[in-house]
Specification:
The chain is α+β, with helices and mostly antiparallel strands. It has three domains: 3-241, 3-Layer(aba) Sandwich (Rossmann fold); 254-342, Uridine Diphospho-n-acetylenolpyruvylglucosamine Reductase, domain 3 (2-Layer Sandwich); 347-473, no CATH class. Helix content is 42%, strand content 19%. The protein has helices spanning 3-25, 42-56, 59-62, 79-92, 104-108, 113-131, 143-154, 160-163, 182-191, 208-219, 227-253, 276-294, 301-306, 308-316, 344-354, 420-426, 431-434, 482-487; strands at 32-37, 64-72, 96-101, 136-138, 169-170, 173-174, 257-260, 263-267, 321-324, 330-334, 337-341, 358-360, 365-369, 372-378, 388-390, 398-401, 408-409, 418-419, 439-441, 447-449, 466-473, 478-479. Strand 9 (321-324) and strand 10 (330-334) form a beta hairpin. The longest helix has 27 residues, at 227-253. The protein is elongated, with a radius of gyration of 30 Å. The two termini are 39 Å apart.
C-alpha cells in the first residue's frame, strides 16, 4: 500500500470514529474540542498528527479543535524534559498543548508501578479534559497493544471480558485505531517525518508489558502475516457478544435490582431455575454494579471472581448466611435474595451515637436510627395493624435504645419470651444488621416493640388511642434503571 493510501486510511478511520462518537454524545457546542493523550511515542504522535489533519480538512462541519495532553509521570530523570519537548513541538505547529503532572500518591498506591501510573495518568487526563472542556480524549492503542493485553490477562485467570481485551471506548476515552497494525503506524510516522520521543521505560524488562512486547516478534513465524490485526478483530467480536449479553441480562434483571447509595438488593427467585452459567453471569453483573455504586473505584477482575462463589452460595442457599467483601462491604442472602451493603460500620457508629436520644412523645413523627427510620402515626378508626400499640398499656414517653445483653421479648401471640437477638435471627435478619438494631421501650424501660417483631404480648386487649409503628430504611431502595445495568462492566 502506498504511503498516501496508508495515511488516508488512518485519517479516514479516525474521522469516522470521531463522527460516530460525537454523534452519540449529542454535543451542541459550536466548537468541538478533542484531545490526544500524547506521550511522544510513535503511536500517539501519529494519532495527534492525524487529528490535526482531520481538523484542517474541515471535518465535522469545520468545528473541530485539536488539543494535545501530555502526562509527565516523573518516573525517570528526563521525564519533564521530554514532556516539555512534546508540548513544544505541537505548540510550534499551532496546536494547543498541555503538560500534565501525574499524582505521585496514586502511582505509589497502585498495585505495582504500572498500575499506579495508569491510574494517575487517567486521572490527570480526566481532570484536564474537564477543565479544558474536551468532548473526547483519543488514545493511540493499536492491534499489537490489544494482543499484549490479552496475553497478559491469560496469566489471570481471566474470563470473557478479559479475552475481549481493551475496549474501543470507555466514557470520554476513545481508541480509534485498535484494529490497526503497528507496522502501519510506523509507515505513517516515516512518511510524515514525525519526531518520536520514546520513553526509556518502554524497554525496561521489569514491567510485564515490556517483556510481552519483546516476546511478540518470536511468535510472528508461527502465524500468517497480519495475525495481530486478526487477534484484535477477535477481541472486538468477543466484546460485541458481551455487549449483547449485557443488554439481554439487563432486560431480564431490570425489575430484580433495587438500590440506594448504601445498599444494593437483588431478588431473583425465578433465576434459581436458570442454568448455572446464567446464574453466575447474572450475579457477576450484579456484583460489579454494586461495587461501582457503593465504592466507585476500580477492583481487580480476579478479586471480583474470588467472591463470586460465596455470593452465589448466599443467593442460592436455603439458610440465611453472610459474607464479608472487600473495602468494608458485606453481603447476605437466602434463597433468591442477595443484599450487598456498604453501611454496616456507619450503622453501628450512628446507632451508638443515637442511643438514649431518640424519644417518641407524639404520633405523626419520624425518628432516625442509623440508616433506618421509625415512623409513628395515630391509627385510623378501627385500624388494628400488627405493629400498633395502645397508649393505655404503654406509658409515655417512649424511647429507642440499644437492647441490653440477653434482653428478652414476648411477642404478641407467641408462646413465651425469647432473647430479642434470637427473634431477629428467626426473622432472617443477618447478624451484621442485628448488631445495630434498637428496641422501643416505655417510660418504665420495658420493651414494647422491636423492628421486624410484633409488639409485646402484655399490651394485648387494650382499648383507646393506638399508634402505628413502621420501620424502614431512611433512604428507600429504588429500582435500578436499565441503562445503569447496561453500563455495568461486561460480565466474564
Amino acid at each position: 500500500m502506498s504511503a498516501q493510501a496508508v495515511a488516508q486510511r488512518l485519517i479516514d478511520s479516525l474521522r469516522s470514529a470521531l463522527a460516530d462518537r460525537l454523534r452519540e454524545r449529542s454535543t451542541s457546542a459550536t466548537v468541538t474540542r478533542v484531545a490526544v493523550a500524547c506521550s511522544g511515542g510513535l503511536d500517539s504522535m501519529c494519532l495527534a498528527d492525524a487529528l490535526v489533519q482531520v481538523a484542517q480538512t474541515k471535518a465535522l462541519g469545520g468545528r473541530l479543535t485539536p488539543m494535545i495532553l501530555t502526562v509527565d509521570h516523573r518516573l525517570h530523570e528526563r521525564s519533564e524534559e521530554w514532556a516539555r519537548a512534546v508540548t513544544t513541538y505541537w505548540r510550534q505547529r499551532g496546536v494547543e498543548a498541555s503538560h500534565l503532572l501525574a499524582d505521585q500518591a496514586l502511582i505509589q498506591g497502585g498495585q505495582g508501578v504500572e498500575d499506579g501510573a495508569r491510574r494517575a495518568r487517567y486521572q490527570a487526563l480526566t481532570e484536564a479534559s474537564r477543565d479544558l472542556n474536551c468532548e473526547l480524549v483519543l488514545l493511540a492503542h493499536h492491534a499489537q497493544d490489544q494482543v499484549e493485553t490479552i496475553l497478559m490477562r491469560l496469566q489471570g485467570p481471566t474470563g470473557a471480558r478479559g479475552l475481549a481485551g481493551i475496549p474501543p471506548q470507555r466514557g470520554i476515552f476513545v481508541r480509534p485505531w485498535l484494529a490497526e497494525e503497528r507496522s502501519t503506524l510506523e509507515q505513517y510516522a516515516l512518511d510524515q517525518t514525525l519526531p518520536v520521543f520514546e520513553d526509556p521505560s518502554n524497554a525496561d524488562p521489569r514491567w510485564l508489558r515490556n517483556r510481552v512486547r519483546g516476546a511478540l516478534p518470536s511468535l510472528a513465524p508461527c502465524f500468517e502475516p497480519g495475525w495481530t490485526r486478526r487477534v484484535a478483530q477477535s477481541a472486538q467480536h468477543a466484546r460485541e457478544q458481551l455487549d449483547g449479553l449485557r443488554w439481554f441480562l439487563a432486560s431480564t434483571l431490570k425489575s430484580a435490582v433495587t438500590a440506594n447509595p448504601q445498599r444494593v438488593s437483588f431478588i431473583w427467585t425465578e433465576g434459581l431455575s436458570a442454568p448455572p452459567d446464567a446464574q453466575r453471569v447474572a450475579l457477576l453483573l450484579l456484583w460489579e454494579l454494586a461495587w461501582r455504586r457503593l465504592r466507585d473505584e476500580r477492583l481487580d477482575g480476579r478479586r471480583l471472581h474470588d467472591h463470586l462463589n460465596p455470593l452465589w452460595a448466599l443467593w442460592s442457599g436455603d439458610a440465611l448466611s453472610q459474607h464479608q467483601l472487600p473495602q468494608g462491604l458485606w453481603a447476605w442472602g437466602k434463597r433468591g435474595t442477595l443484599i450487598i451493603d456498604a453501611q454496616i460500620s456507619e450503622l453501628e457508629r450512628s446507632a451508638s451515637d443515637a442511643r438514649h436520644t431518640c424519644v417518641v412523645e407524639a404520633p405523626h413523627s419520624v425518628i432516625t436510627w442509623g440508616a433506618w427510620e421509625l415512623s409513628v402515626a395515630r391509627a385510623t378508626e378501627g385500624e388494628r395493624a400488627p405493629d400498633s400499640i395502645a397508649i393505655s398499656r404503654a406509658p409515655l414517653p417512649w424511647r429507642l435504645r440499644a437492647p441490653h445483653s440477653g434482653e428478652r421479648l414476648h411477642p404478641l401471640g407467641a408462646p413465651g419470651s425469647k432473647p430479642i437477638r434470637q427473634l431477629w435471627a428467626r426473622a432472617s435478619i443477618p447478624p451484621v444488621e442485628r448488631a445495630s438494631l434498637p428496641v422501643l421501650v416505655d417510660a418504665n424501660d420495658a420493651v414494647i416493640w422491636a423492628p421486624y417483631i410484633r409488639p409485646a404480648d402484655h399490651l394485648r386487649g387494650a382499648t383507646g388511642e393506638r399508634w402505628v409503628l413502621r420501620w424502614s430504611l431512611a433512604d428507600p431502595l429504588k429500582p435500578v434503571e436499565l441503562t445503569e445495568l447496561e453500563r455495568a462492566p461486561s460480565p466474564g
